[in-house]
Design brief:
9 helices; elongated; 6-stranded mixed beta sheet
Length: 223
């Protein structure tokens, strides 16, 4: 308090310009820190308040495209009649997992993928045959007979990929993927250019399998 009184005495009789120069000299760092802190807190509150729940989240593993996937998913939200005031649909492209090199980027993405599945954030995935088969063998993909409507499964019966899932207590092969290399979305986006076989599957613990069925139909729609 004594220090504050002393500073007030020094400023007594000074012009507005001199007071500003004094303030800027001694208090600019503290002021900038306070301003930045306020901006950070305000942005955090805004993000929390305006955050939407996920209606559907799909990922393209090793699928590279320059397509505006956000705009594409806005089309899906309209197609599936998703309430965009409360929910959002996401398609993540350019997600690299190179298991032959296992660089830091790949390692981080493998961890991210596992964490998203554990948190039940991820609903579906695209991948070329070898990668898709690895994820099926590791128990990440679900039995489409249990996850998709019978009519949807029947519509794609000639495109199904079968596998023996590790956690279903049976050696019987079940459908885990749908061959989609020729779908309108992949043809337009070029995400798997040069690949003759690309599969779409539903994550084993997806909470939005109904939307996965809608999305499967959507990607075959011509734009």
């Amino acid at each position: 308090m004594d220090e504050i009184r002393e500073q007030h005495k020094k400023m007594k009789g000074k012009s507005l310009k001199e007071k500003f120069q004094y303030f800027w000299e001694y208090y600019r760092v503290a002021t900038l820190i306070i301003i930045l802190a306020v901006i950070f807190v305000a942005n955090l509150i805004y993000t929390i308040v305006t955050a939407k729940d996920s209606a559907f989240y799909a990922i393209l593993i090793n699928g590279y495209t320059t397509m505006d996937t956000e705009t594409y998913m806005e089309g899906f939200e309209e197609y599936a009649q998703i309430d965009t005031k409360q929910y959002t649909a996401t398609l993540e492209a350019n997600f690299t997992i190179d298991e032959n090199s296992m660089d830091s980027y790949t390692a981080a993405n493998i961890q991210k993928f596992a964490a998203q599945v554990a948190a039940k954030e991820l609903d579906a995935m695209f991948a070329e045959t070898d990668t898709f088969q690895k994820y099926a063998d590791n128990g990440y993909l679900g039995n489409l007979e249990e996850l998709l409507p019978a009519e949807t499964l029947a519509a794609y019966k000639d495109r199904l990929l079968y596998a023996d899932l590790p956690d279903d207590d049976t050696e019987e092969e079940v459908p885990v993927g749908v061959q989609v290399a020729d779908c309108a979305f992949l043809q337009e986006s070029g995400a798997y250019a040069g690949q003759d076989e690309v599969y779409f599957g539903v994550i084993v613990n997806s909470e939005h399998a109904d939307m996965a069925a809608e999305f499967l139909d959507y990607i075959f729609q011509e734009s």
